[in-house]
Design brief:
10 helices, globular, alpha/beta, two-stranded parallel ribbon, ten-stranded parallel sheet
């Protein structure tokens, strides 16, 4: 069924929509503005909404104002390709997971935030957001390859993120390494450009991140898809010898607007979704 028709059907049937916890829109639909406007104009139809995934936010409505006021129970929010024309300060008091591209111009406060995925160029607003929330984050996924946060050096970075358990970065960050042994970081998610990761690269990262016990990759991250079974075995064997487990993340079946839905399967992130009854598979 067309996604606009589906949304209209839910609006007209509140007995269904009132219990809905998750709305995930595919990147393949074309009538972005109409769908977003319907959603923002009738937030009371979805009083139980916990997870909202939007691939293309194109609207003249005051988007952040209506997200703040209309969806107070929101725990997970994914927004890509947002055309930011708003100003102001908004608070999403229950939000624990935020995946956003590119960064926004508004001032956003998320006092419950634990997990952040972000890509795009560093802005002053982004730095302000990190300064406000870095101490509470448990996982952080970063792009582009050389984000400003990493360029400031490992000592300053790890001091700013004292509770981080999972970090997602591209390998071979110059002059950057893991934290001291007392830091809680245990999980490393390595990204790649079209399959550029080899066992040697992963082992090099493990040596730089001595606290890490789990490395998370997908088969698509590996250098050769044809040789991926052999590479995964080699990688597992070599990492096991150093006391590190390789976790092969699944290819997600849901409509992908982000290559990071695999992030949601990692236990510390998945636990948030499970705890509020979010159905996302």
């Amino acid at each position: 069924m067309d996604q606009t028709k589906t949304l209209n059907y839910l609006v007209q049937n509140p007995t269904l929509s009132c219990n809905l916890t998750t709305l995930i829109f595919s990147h393949t639909f074309t009538d972005h503005r109409n769908v977003i406007d319907i959603l923002l104009d009738r937030p009371s139809i979805f009083p139980s909404l916990r997870c909202l995934v939007l691939p293309n936010v194109n609207t003249n409505r005051p988007f952040w104002q209506r997200i703040q006021d209309g969806f107070p129970k929101l725990v997970a929010l994914v927004i890509h390709q947002y055309r930011d024309t708003e100003n102001g300060h908004y608070t999403l008091k229950n939000l624990e997971i935020l995946d956003i591209t590119p960064w926004i111009k508004v001032t956003l406060s998320c006092p419950a935030l634990k997990h952040l995925s972000i890509r795009g160029y560093t802005t002053d607003m982004m730095i302000d957001f990190f300064q406000l929330h870095s101490h509470q984050l448990e996982s952080l996924l970063l792009e582009p390859q050389r984000p400003t946060l990493l360029a400031e050096g490992p000592r300053k970075f790890w001091a700013a993120f004292p509770n981080l358990e999972l970090l997602g970065i591209y390998p071979n960050e110059p002059d950057f390494c893991g934290p001291r042994s007392t830091h809680p970081l245990r999980h490393l998610r390595l990204f790649s450009y079209r399959g550029s990761i080899t066992p040697d690269i992963v082992l090099s990262e493990i040596r730089s991140f001595e606290t890490v016990t789990h490395v998370h990759i997908t088969v698509d991250d590996l250098l050769s898809t044809e040789e991926s079974p052999n590479l995964v075995k080699e990688l597992r064997d070599r990492c096991r010898a150093r006391g590190v487990a390789v976790v092969e993340l699944p290819r997600m079946k849901i409509p992908r607007i982000s290559d990071r839905y695999e992030w949601w399967t990692i236990p510390i992130v998945k636990a948030v979704l499970d705890s509020v009854g979010v159905v996302w598979k």
